[in-house]
Amino acid sequence: MTFWINPDSYMKTPSFRLAVSAFALAGLAHTATAQTTLYQPRDIKRAFDKGTRAADGRPGPKYWQNTARYNITVQAAPPARDIKGRETITYFNNSPDTLKSLVIRLIQNIHKPGVSRDGDASPDYLTTGVAIDSFAVGGQARPYNGRGAATAQTIALPKALAPHDSVRLSFAWHFPISLESGREGMLDKTTFFLAYFYPRIAVYDDYNGWDRLPFVDSKEFYNDFNNYTLRVKVPANYIVWATGTLQNPKQVLQPAFAKKLDKSMTSEAIMHIATAADLAKKNITAQQPFNTWVWKADDISDVTLAFSDHYVWDAASVIVDPATKRRASVQAAYADSTVDFRSSVKFSQNALSWFSRNWPGVPYPFPKMTVIQGFADMEYPMMVNDSPQKDLQFAQLVQDHEIAHTYFPFYMGINESRYAFMDEGWATTFELLIGRAENGVAAADEFYRKFRVNRWINDRSTAEDLPVITPSSELRAGYGNNSYGKASLSYLALKDMLGDELFKKCLHAYMDRWHGKHPIPWDYFNSMSNASGQDLTWFFNNWFFSNGYIDLAISKLDKTAKGTTVSLKNVGGFAVPVDLKVTYADGSTETLHRSADIWRANQQQASFVIPAGKVVQAVALDHGLYMDADPSNDRLTAQ
After folding, report:
1. What residues contact 237, with CB distance under 8 A and at least 6 apart?
2. How far is CA 567 from the centre of its chain?
3. What is the dihedral sign for C-alpha 218, 224, 227, 229?
4. Do 29 and 573 meet the contact criterion of CB atoms below 8 Å apart?
5. E strand intervals along 182-289
6. Residue 291 CB coordination number (10 Å)
7. Euclidean distance between CA atoms 435 and 145, whole angstroms
8. Nearest-CA neighbor of 618 among 593, 591, 639, 636?
9. Would you state the pLDDT for residue 92?
10. pLDDT tens, 580-623?
């Protein structure tokens, strides 16, 4: 549920036990101390003590992470629902630890009856899950000893895996594709979207060891950076789209269509690689019983794929690195009757170009982006699975949001399962910023207020005031607002406080340091302080470790020889920017702006002076994006 708006409408889940995090004790919303240290859980502190992470926000001198090579073959023949696969995984243990077991993720088991999940499951959602047909270690067949129906299963190794050694695993498996799923599954009888379809080795990291969190469907993912070769075997007349670069277009496509695809790689003009008329003639692919499409992708955290015998196919390209003129392919696959998807390639060109040049201002790092008409509004490396929209502007906004995830969590290896705000908050921020460029500031800001702020700020429930740092895995209520809106508002407040130039410098420093690695929140906090040359601990403590919300009040106006002093109370506690609309006795108005830095010295109260000159008649808070929980005390008239 990566394009989250409202958990009541999107996350169809029952009440989930709230674990009120001890992190709430780390910082108080109402503190008058200028600086504190950020609370670190014991496992995080140990990582810093061991030298895998550094206090300046960089990877420590002893930082490590594991990786693997995946060679996967998957086969399907719609309308049959059976998905069959086999793979070899060469897993490299770069850690200093000897591993006596591995944790295997079988995420498709989320569809099995009885598996722990956050939501109710309809009969069409449920399947028998993954069946392991064969398993081998180092070429020797062994019984697969993973237990139960879990999405994360521990298997013992016949021989412990020493530091800096590797092990080769082989799997064969099958599962029935789900008829109804929130993220992957059957789009129609002959169109499938496969995600999380292969056994994978869970992350083993420096601060938590094995990632054993079960996949419960409402939270997202945490993966290592691996190299993938993917073979997709489907009948003739099925077109395949997947993560990575297609290695054999001339073997699977008829010459005319292979030529059009090749031409699209250097063309700004949108090309219709396969039209509805082409599909009706059944002459697009090689005419043999099955074609095997081969894809490769290196240093990437996941692969996904889709195939159909009736989706049309558009493609073009766009320059994503002005310095080198490097291009990325942009493609779309959809039912010909779906109106908004006819603009999908154009939307992708705009998004990849804008994100590369503006925010975050890092050239799109991958060779391709493909958007598939599905139902998930969900991001994957180099792919997006989006639902059709009647409103073209909203369709573009959703697609922008999913493509923005390229940077967080795919360029940066975010642990979304524990710290979703580290990717969803950024995608929400970039969604706003590109939306301003596309639709104007007023329209973009209004959407943001309506869908990202309004529900949270008007919800007085305890769960909504849990600190943002509370692990996502411990949240049911409060998850969406913590991960999306509250985190995004903090990033925007910091951008305003530092100014665009310094903020971008700091953001790039953080991204450069942790690209292709696994940052945690403390790496972000420390890196931003280090790169800015400022101690931002007070700001991060306020926004991420407190129970704050947004509620400012104008308490009094004092006239002095220097002007009018406006006294503010920070009732809710969050260090937000302040915009004060001043109305003068002559009827004129002006708006005075102060960044969140106004709360640095005292997070309970602040003041600033309206210079002497015109007679002040009234002052009022203009909250902009930072909607106020109690607007009744936002205006005061001079006496």
Report:
1. 279, 282, 284, 285, 309
2. 39
3. negative
4. yes
5. 185-188, 191-194, 200-201, 204-205, 209-210, 226-235, 239-242, 245-246, 271-274
6. 21
7. 50
8. 636
9. 98
10. 999 999 999 999 999 999 999 999 999 989 999 899 999 999 99
* Architecture of the domain spanning 552-637: Sandwich (2.60)
CATH of domain 22-62+424-544: 1.10.390.10
Task: Please answer whether residues 480 and 6 qualify as being in contact, where contact means their C-beta atoms are separated by less than 8 angstroms.
Answer: yes
Angle, alpha carbons 594-599-600 (nearest 5°): 115
- 153-171 pLDDT, tens digit per residue, is 999 999 999 999 999 999 9
Q: What is the dihedral of CA 406, 410, 413, 418, to 10 degrees?
A: 80
- Among residues 142, 293, 131, 116, the alpha carbon closest in space to that of 199 is found at 131
CB of 438 within 8 A of CB of 355? no
Length of the chain: 639
Supply the DSSP string of 514-534, one letter for each residue: HBTS---HHHHHHHHHHHHTS
Residue with tokens 């930072």: 626
Q: Is the pLDDT of residue 436 over 90?
A: yes
Question: What does the pLDDT look like over 118-128, one tens digit per residue?
Answer: 888 899 999 99
Domain range summary for the chain, segments of one domain joined by +: 22-62+424-544, 552-637
Give residue-wise pLDDT tens across range 304-319.
Answer: 999 999 999 999 999 9
Quick one: residue 421, left, alpha or beta (phi over 0 = left, psi -120 to 50 = alpha)?
alpha
